[in-house]
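Quick sanity check, BPS1-like protein:
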Amino acid sequence: MSRPQVPHRPFFHFGNPFQMISLKGSQMTPNLSALLNTFEETLAGRLRKLNPKDNNDVLSLSWMKLAMESLCGTRNDIKTLIAEIDLPVSAWDEKWIDVYLDISVKLLDICIVFSSEIARLNQGHLFLQFVLHNLNSTSSKQFIRARSSVDDWKNHIASKNPRFENCSTIWDKLVESLDLPKVKNSAKGKLLMRAMYGVKVLTVSVCSVFATAFSGSASKLLDLNVAETYMWAQAFNDLQSNVNGEIRNVLSSGRVTVLKELEAVDGIVKHLYPMIQDDVALAEEEAFKNSTSDLERKAQNLSQGLDLLTKEVDGFFQILLTGCKALLSKLRSGGAVSDQMMMGNVEGQVVR
C-alpha cells in the first residue's frame, strides 16, 4: 500500500491526550478480563477485515459499505458487553451516561449529513439517465439535449453540500469526545470506558474517511494515536496508515472526484463529451456506442453502490437511535437521571 511522499503530522501532534484506562487496582476478576479480551479481539478482527487489500478498494462505495457494517457491529458488541458485565443503568455514573448519549447524538447528526450527501449524489444519477435517454433517441436534437444533461450533471457533482460546512462544530466535538471521563474504584466501569474508547476510535476514524470522501477535502481526515496497550492497536494503526496514506495520494493528484465509482463515471463522461459536441462521424460510431454502453454500466454501478450505502447508514442511524431510546427508558424507570436533562441532550441536538 502506497504512502504519502511527505509524512503527515498527526492530528494530535503534541502527543496522545487520551490516557489509557488502567485496570490495575480495580479487582478485575477473571470473568471480566475474559470479557474484555473477547471484546478487544473482536474489535481487532473487524479492523483487520476493514484493512483494504488493494489501493482501489480505498474510497470505493463497497469499502464504505463494509466500514459502516463494522460500525454497526461494534455498537452491537458494546451493547452485548454491557449486558454480559451485568452493569445495570442504575449503577452507571452520570458521566458514563453523558459519554454514551453525547457520542450517540453527535453520530446521529453526522449520519444525517452523510445521508444528505448520498441523496445529492443519487440526484446526479437522474442527469445521467437523461443523457443516456437522449443518446438512445432517434431525434435530431438528441445531442443538444444530451449536452445539456451532461452540463447539468457536471455542475451538480461539482457543487458543494452546505451541510458539511454547517456541521463543523459538531464534528469538532465528536473528536473531543474521545477523551473519556476518569473512573474510580469500579472495575466494571473502567472496563466499560475502555471498551467505549475502542468503539469511538473506530467510529471517529471511519467518519473522518467518509467526510473526506464526500467533501473531496483532507481537512477532516484524522491521524489518531492509540497506545500499544490495547489489543486492537496494531490492527487500527495498520488500517489508518494504509487508508489515510492512499487518500492523501489520491487528493494530491488533483482529482476532482475521489469516490472510485464516481471517478469511473466522470472518466467516461469526459471521453464521451467531445463526441456529442457535433454529429458523430461514421468512423466514430463504434467508439460512440461502446462509450455509451460503458457509461450506462458505470452509472448503474454508482447508483447501486449508493443505494447499498444508504441502507447501511440508515441502519447505523437506527441502531444509534434505538440505543438512546432504550437508555432513556431505563433511566426513566430507575430515576437515575432527570428526564428533562436527558431529553434535552438527545432530542434537542439532532440536526434536522
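Posting the structure with no commentary besides this: Residues 285-334 form the longest helix (50 residues).
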